[in-house]
User: Fold AraC family transcriptional regulator from Leptospira andrefontaineae.
Amino acid sequence: MLNPEVVTPLFYFGSGLSFLLVVQKLIPPIKRREDRIGALLFLSLGIILFTVANVVLEIDRVYPHAIFLLLTSFSAIGPLSLLYTHSLIYPNQTLYRDIRLHFLVPGLFFLGELLFFGRPWDSIISDLGDFRNIRYKHYLSWGFFLTTALTTTYFGFRYRMLLTVISIPELKSQIRFIFILATITVFAMYSLVFGFMFGLDILFRVGGLLVTGIVTLLFLAPSRYPDFFAPLTREVRKKKYEKSLLIGLDLNLLELRIQELMREDKLYRDPELTLHSLSEDLGIKPYQLTEFLNEHLQTGFHNYINGFRIEEAVKLLEEKLDQDILSICYFVGFNSKSSFNDAFRKVTGKTPTQLRQKKSDIPEKQKLHTARTGVPPLGKGLGGMVELGDSDRISVKNRPIKAENR
Assistant:
């Protein structure tokens, strides 16, 4: 029943379906965070199914690169599943502080695979042949065992995350569905790894069929239940509001006060500015500031501060052409050129050098325009725009952020 002629077409079908889901996630002009993470997750599942089919057909004995990226994809399933669940439940909440740490192990496996498959063809075939013969005793098996342990750990965190919202009656169907799907995924991973390591071909093929079933279900489910996860986000937000640490604060005034500290006092220029120091200036607790930024401004502390820094840096780069980039970097509050370049590229899509180069080309074009027409190009201030002076601004410095009885 589970002979190669039957299961491998299903594995290739599931692989193609996964790649189709990747395209589906990336097509919308406005891509949500969960769409990008979901695309990576389906890409990993597609690679796993494709390589599993090649292993069943023993294609790797002749074309060893037919299983390239199998280990990397396996190791990425755990982090991607956790981050995808987090994005579904908390769509507006900043992800873990440094998301790159979650992909440290997959990154190392990727480098390892590049080195392994970059060797002479005969050496690769010989090693993979030995791996098939002695299975779990081969040195390659430790990578898969480590991946299994890593995936188990991540799914443990995923279960714990789901338990925080399982008490909400309106979400029982959604949470049950995610629990079942997560459990099937873990069992499928175990079946694939241990089925191969101990020569249990039936178990290995069952694991592949389970992954194919998961992909097929995730492909069809949105068509039948397009708003299945909508109550999940809505009810989580409601529960979080009931336990909010911001009750009693005037949120509009808090936002104005932060803007004033940034726009007028320019606190962002301080390279030592921290969440704690800013919350002290605002007269609130650090955890209240974190919740306010995450839930009401949909950003994190570092992204919020860097936004003001980059805004001023862009202005200086365009107006102060004689000022070097490094001095601008330190002036606006960054303490290293690398962090400045990373933040600048993230906000503007360009490097500071590229932006300045583009700006320096404009005067030449203006001179050419004047030479041709005899009329200088329109400058700033001719469009009827009026900027308020300092005396026109309304200060909120002395107004209490804590709201009166409301």
